[in-house]
Amino acid sequence: MSFSIIKPGLLDTIQDMGRTGYGNWGIPPGGVMDRYAAQVGNLLVGNIQQEAVMEIHFPGPQILFEQNTLIAITGADFSPTVNDQIIPRWQPVVVRKNTVLHFPSLVQGARCYISVHGGYCMDKWLESYSTNLKAGVGGWEGRPLKKGDELPYKENTIYFAGLLKEESDFEVLPWRVNTEKVYRLPHEIGFIPGHEWEELTPAAQNNFPGDNFLIHPSSDRMGYQLKGGPLLMDRPVELVSSAVSFGTVQMLPNGQLIVLMADHQTTGGYPRIAHVISAHLPKLAQLRPCDTIQFKPVDTIAAEALLKVRQKELHILQRACMDHLNELVC
Amino acid sequence: MRALAIRNWLVSSQFPGILDIMVAYSSVAVFYDPVEVRKETPCADGAFACMRQRLEMAWQETEGKMIGQPGGTGEAPEAEGNGAPIRISVCYEGACAPDLEALSREKGMTPDEVIHLHTSPVYRVYMIGFLPGFPYLGKLDERLQTPRKLRPVPVKAGGVGIAGNQTGIYPLNSPGGWQIIGRTPEKLFTPAAENPVRLKIGDLIVFVPITGEQFRELELKG
Predict the structure, then answer these.
(1) CB atoms within 10 A of CB A226
(2) Does the pLDDT of residue B41 top 80, yes or no?
């Protein structure tokens, strides 16, 4: 079982939920930028949440399916098509052997995920499928996908041919996910104060929430550089390096901000004025250069509650998807 | 290093929901899954309050335990920390040391004096960060202390740099802002190995100067 890359996209990599537990080796977690989209994609095709997915950016790749395959496209909307016919996102789709998946236009969002039933089949590095581009390891040969790559996935037990109507290139299965709550108010990003929050001047503490910050074009999987009214501290803060994480908002000496994203370094020496709450990282991951964001204070207990609700919904979705798939198989 | 003692105490306590514990110069950062933390330990005030309590416990329990320090009473986590220093061969010649001459001039020393000052101390690995396996070593002799470059330049894997009161080794080719005064042929990061990262927090290190010829030989041997 495999599919092949006819034409690679801007940056197509294999990722999972990240490589946790190796911070003391200087190895960052990495992993998908939008965990929610990746988890949902996996659940829709009957995988566990942590299964590897392909993360793509626009322009996306062209992919030839060498077998009938159950896939789900989640995250950004790059108007996915199979043999030039639009297929829905956030919904499982059986695609026929020898069809081509293609992403002709950018509608919305920054990162899109392709999940396959059974999951991609490759070796893990340090317990994770995530690609660490800096070290050139993990995922698919430690690099972005290129033309001619044949990505194997695990054998599956579902007889997909039976689901495909004659002559049709694909069949959309009749269940989908409502993602409205997760991506609602896309520019409003919740934060909790960071270690050096108190070092900001009262005016900066006052202005940071609600001010418009522009995502700079040089933003990438390592971090988003923000452009806004510079923030000030009461006195210069000299820090020795310490741990940072996905979502840490650092302040540079010129008063501008960087939000660290999935491929961040493990340690940093800039003041950490805030942390984006985990439940809002998927929204942030889908914003593009030149989008603006506003930070909104959230207390820790509310932030934890949001995450808990999200996980509960994923568990319910997992059970529902398994029930639907089992009905098809039996 | 009290930070190491705190990490070890947390690890041995096996609290549920902890994903990673990172030790740096003067800090311990605990990464946790709030949902998992609350599942096992009902906490009216939330997972953060619960973790905070545990860290306060860790702080009290490790009172006076300084791992890897003379007279320390903490248990050794990784024996290397208290063992003989690890010897790292470094070539301080030619292309291996692009910033050595300029630095020597600036400090009013000969390159040999700089090399002598760099190879004399036994360094400790205070933390690993920035790149996989990049050791932050201290303390550098005061006479060698120098600021970072204004902008990063390409550094080859094995590059030995200095900045502030620290010295370190680039395990990978990478942009870097430290002054590069030497290069080691030894591999600090081997992805396929069972332990991909050679040096650990608390390890002791000495630099041993080698010639350009020895460097090439060792590099060939891999």
Answers:
(1) 21
(2) no
Report in angstroms the alpha-carbon separations of A207 from A211, A230, A238, A291: 6, 10, 23, 19
Residue burial A293-321, b: 16+ Cβ < 10 Å; e: rest: bebeebebeebbebbbebbebbeebbeeb
For B92-130, the pLDDT digits (tens) are: 999 999 999 999 999 999 999 999 999 999 999 999 999
Q: Do B180 and B160 form a contact (C-beta atoms < 8 A)? A: yes
Q: Is B165 on the interface with A (CB under 8 A)?
A: no
Sign of CA dihedral B81, B85, B91, B92: positive
User: B-chain residues within 8 Å CB-CB of A22?
Assistant: 20
Q: What is the pLDDT of residues B157-166, one digit of tens each?
A: 999 999 988 9
Chain A residue numbers touching B129 (CB-CB < 8 A):
26, 241, 265-267
Which tokens in the block code for residue A196?
């050096």
pTM, 2 dp = 0.93
Grade residue A1 by pLDDT with cuts at 50, 70 and 90. Answer: confident
B133 touching chain A per CB within 8 A: yes
